[in-house]
Structure formats: C-alpha cells, structure tokens
Amino acid sequence: MTDDTEFTQPVYHEEDTNAEYIADKTVAVLGYGSQGHAHAQNLHESGVDVVVGLREGSASRSAAEDDGLRVATPVEAAAEADVVSILVPDTVQPAVYDQIEDELEAGDTLQFAHGFNIHYGQIEPKGGIDVTMVAPKSPGHLVRRNYEAGEGTPGLVAVYQDETGDAKGEALAYASAIGCARAGVIETTFREETETDLFGEQAVLCGGATALVKQGYEVLVDAGYSPEMAYFEVLNELKLIVDLMYEGGLTEMWDSVSDTAEYGGLTQGPVVVDETARENMEEVLEQVQNGEFAQEWITENQANRPKYKQLRAREENHDIEEVGERLRELFAWAEEESEDEEEVAE
Ligand code: NAD
Ligand code: MG
Ligand code: MG
Ligand code: MG
Ligand code: MG
C-alpha cells in the first residue's frame, strides 16, 4: 500500500490525450457486464481493436456478439491483447488474473476500473507490465448512453506500475476512447480511488442514504402516518432533491425548495446527522483505511456470503419495498428506469 498523503489532481480533457498510444493496439475487455459492455462498444466505435474475453457458456457471449464484437475466452483474449481491461466483478478478479497472468508479456498493460484488488494486495501484478486504472465515475449504462449522445462521463485515471514510461499516456488514450475525456479525467492513485469509493458507498451513497430513508419511513409509520405518504416523503422525493444537488450543488437545491424547507432543513439536518454520526463515519473510514473492511469482505466471499445473503433478504423484506412496488406501478417513468436496469444486469 502506498502512503501518498499529498493528493495533487490534474484534470485531463480531449486535447491532453493522444489516440496514438492505443491506435495500433488490441484491447481485451474481460467481462461484459455494467462496465464491460460500455468500454468494449465505445472502444470499438472509437476505432480501437477490441476482443471481449468471456468464459465458454457465459450468458454474456451472445450479447457481445450481437453488439458486433469479437469474443474469445479470457485466456485467448489476454494472449492476443496489448491492453487487458479487467472488468469482471472485483471478487472474481484474483482468480481471473491467475488464469491470464502467463499471457501478459513485457510491455503489456493490465487495466482496472477500481483499485480494490491491487490496493488490498489481492492481485500482485507481475513485473515488466504496466498497471493502470481508468474508472468512469458512473454505472456502465450511462458511460454507453453518454458516448452515443456525443457526451462524456467524468472518469479517474491512475498509474500503479509504469514499466514502459507510456502508462499514463495510454490510460488517457483509453479514457478518451470510452468518452471520459469529453467530460474530464481526474488523476488519482489506486489508494485514493479505492478508499474514497468504499467510504462514499458505505457512509453516504448506498449505506447512509438507505439507512436514512428506512429510519425516516419507520418513524413516520410508527407515529401512525400512512405508508404511502411516508414512502413519498422519504424515498420518492429524495431523487428530486439529489437531482438538484447534482445540477447545481447544495445552493441550487436550497434555492429551489421553499424557505420553510430550507430553514427546517438547515436547523434539523445536523440534529439528525449529528456529531455521533460523524464519529461513526470516521470509524467507517478507519476500517476502510486499515484494511479491516476489505478483509471482512474477502472472508465473507470465501464463506459463500452468509451475512450478505441474510442482510440482503432482510432489506428486500422491508415494508417500504412492498409499498414502493405498489406505488411505482402507477408511474410510467419507473418502468423506463427498470428497462435500463435490465440492460445493465445481463
Ligand atoms: P458486472 O458484475 O456488471 O459484470 C461482470 C461481468 O463479468 C459479466 O459479464 C460476467 O459474465 C463476467 N464474469 C463473471 N465472472 C466471470 C469469470 N469468472 N470469468 C470471466 N467473466 C466473468 O461488473 P461491473 O459492475 O461492470 O464491475 C466491473 C469492474 O468495474 C469492477 O472492478 C467494478 O468495481 C468497476 N466499476 C463498476 C462500476 C459500476 O457502476 N458498475 C463503476 C465503476 C467501476
Ligand atoms: Mg499479450
Ligand atoms: Mg463508486
Ligand atoms: Mg464501488
Ligand atoms: Mg415534502
């Protein structure tokens, strides 16, 4: 693990990238899920030679072929490629790396979209190769949709191992080919990307937001309000508030809600998410930084995920899910969203 506490973060755009770095190369995209399908198709349409690496009998094979892409096994694809983009789930990456390691020749690149396995030592890449990261800061279906619309998705770029001296140039060329440089590519490190990503999804985005929603829902329903009203107030409307923050930050959100909502929010928000919550967040960050969370998740996977399955079942059975399912049927927009998700979940 590196200990680079001084973060300098240049942002790169199209004019800072040079397609020559990748023009004559073959890129193997291993996996055809959320990120894989987007990277493979965007690279291909940007004129890069792409081969998708999938296991024999993988359900994604026909999807990749239908999208006009060449498909081989992960080992065949890695053998042929100069750049191997490893876009299978993080938990299976170490096993896939073991299969393809011998196919990586001096000067080849092993590329990630998330730093977990490198940062926590689950993959120890061989010498003689470059190791980089190009990580779009969004789900794959948006990476694809934005590219098709001529727009970009912001991304991160990082270099872990630079044997050729070209690692960053090549990663930026890749970032440009998948559309990220149209929006901006921020330079980071494997450590910073991994730790901030885990903290963000645990404390705020996935963990924090769902815990806030569930507690708010329970408080209203326990006080005798209808589940339908509670659902709309604490879950449905959350998207509208987040959209405003996404577009114009906190200020635009506060400007858009009523003065009453603004005053009440500014005074009561810190009462709910108080100093204790901050201390809990610091504890979450600590466990990310010292590798405790990573070890727990690795052990959980080795044991076939007992706690994960239990927690997931409990979440699916929460009352708010039943109410939400009924209410969302009333909205056409919800149907469109779930179609998008099906596309991703192939
Ligand atoms: P995913 O679960 O959507 O896709 C997995 C793909 O890998 C599928 O095509 C599956 O068939 C294939 N696969 C599974 N096991 C395999 C095996 N043993 N051998 C070969 N192929 C196998 O994955 P994802 O969410 O796109 O994640 C890929 C990488 O991108 C991860 O490192 C993740 O952290 C990173 N990432 C994801 C997102 C996101 O929003 N999904 C965003 C940024 C970065
Ligand atoms: Mg090779
Ligand atoms: Mg993330
Ligand atoms: Mg993540
Ligand atoms: Mg309201």
UniProtKB/TrEMBL annotation:
GO terms for molecular function: isomerase activity; ketol-acid reductoisomerase activity; magnesium ion binding; NADP binding. HAMAP family: IlvC. It is an enzyme of class 1 (oxidoreductase). The keyword Transmembrane helix does not apply. It catalyses: (2R)-2,3-dihydroxy-3-methylbutanoate + NAD(+) = (2S)-2-acetolactate + NADH + H(+); (2R)-2,3-dihydroxy-3-methylbutanoate + NADP(+) = (2S)-2-acetolactate + NADPH + H(+); (2R,3R)-2,3-dihydroxy-3-methylpentanoate + NADP(+) = (S)-2-ethyl-2-hydroxy-3-oxobutanoate + NADPH + H(+). This is Ketol-acid reductoisomerase (NADP(+)). Its cofactor is Mg(2+). Residues 9-188 form the KARI N-terminal Rossmann domain. Belongs to the ketol-acid reductoisomerase family. Binds 2 magnesium ions per subunit. NADP(+) binds at residues 32-35, 55, 58, 60, 140. Its EC number is 1.1.1.86. It comes from Halarchaeum nitratireducens.
